[in-house]
C-alpha cells in the first residue's frame, strides 16, 4: 500500500494567490472605511492604517504557513537557517521560485533580493518608475507580512522594509532583534 502512495508536494495555487493579492488592498481599504464610519469618524484613510491591516493579513498567513511547513522538521539552529528556509523552501511554495540572493552582515541584518518578483512583474503603468513603485507599495506590504509572520513563528523577531528602484526588482531588508 505504501508503494502505491504518491508523494504530495505542498503547493499554493498561483491563480488563487494572485487573486488574493489583487483583492487584499481594496479589502483593507473597505475594512478601514467601515471601521471609521461605524466609529463616527470621517475623513481620508490613513496610510498607516492600511499598512497595518495589509501587513497583518500577511503576518497571519506567514505564521500559519511556517507552522504547517515546519511541523515535522527539527528546530532551526540559527537565524541564517531560518532565512535559508524562507529563501529556498517557503518562497518557492508561495511565489514559484527561490529568492535570487540572500545577503547578510552576520550581525542580524539580512537582505532577500528577488530580481523578478512575481507580483510586481505583472504591474505596469504609464507613469515613471518611481510612481509605479509608489503604487505597488501596498501590494508589497503583504509579502512583508508573510516574511515577518514566518520569522515570528520560528522565533525570530524582526522589523522589515523593502526597496525597489525599478519593478519587478525588489529587496526585502530584515533587521532582527536578539
Automatic annotation (TrEMBL):
Provide an example Pfam family for this protein: TRAPP
**GO BP: any one term:** endoplasmic reticulum to Golgi vesicle-mediated transport
Query: What superkingdom does the record give?
Result: Eukaryota
List, alphabetically, the InterPro entries matched.
Answer: NO_sig/Golgi_transp_ligand-bd (IPR024096), TRAPP_component (IPR007194), TRAPPC6/Trs33 (IPR037992)
- Provide the leader sequence positions: none
Under the heading SUPFAM superfamilies, the entry gives: Ligand-binding domain in the NO signalling and Golgi transport
Give the record's GO CC terms. cis-Golgi network; trans-Golgi network; TRAPP complex
Q: Which family does it belong to?
A: Belongs to the TRAPP small subunits family. BET3 subfamily.
Q: Can you name this protein?
A: Similar to Saccharomyces cerevisiae YOR115C TRS33 One of 10 subunits of the transport protein particle (TRAPP) complex of the cis-Golgi
Protein source organism: Geotrichum candidum
